[in-house]
Amino acid sequence: MSDAKMETVIDDQAQSGGPQAQAARQVEELRADVDTIDAAIVAMLAERFRVTRRIGLLKAQAGFASADMHRESAQIAALRDKADDYGLNPDLAEAYLHLVADAAKRDHERLASQVNPR
């Protein structure tokens, strides 16, 4: 059976007292760590978007374009290098940057339309 069709309910295994109970308890502990990390990532994303909104407002007021491809290319290269330093797949770091940069550009375009209505 493929992994996509299989499911293990870790909570059930942890309570079972069976041979896999210890591994299930360790998975639960590690999942708690993942939950803490995810919460920290969301907090950092919120802070990142507070800063990029300020950037977007300044760009809108100055009449700058929402995109800066030179900056984005430099950031992609820097994050790919940093990911490699940390043993993270650089493609994942680049996908993250595209996700947040695209969201920031959409926000900048919205701000520009509010500051400079046509």
From TrEMBL:
One of its GO terms (molecular function) is chorismate mutase activity. Residues 21-112 form the Chorismate mutase domain. Residues 1-24 are annotated as: Disordered. SMART domains: CM_2. SUPFAM superfamilies: Chorismate mutase II (SSF48600). It is an enzyme of class 5 (isomerase). This is Chorismate mutase.
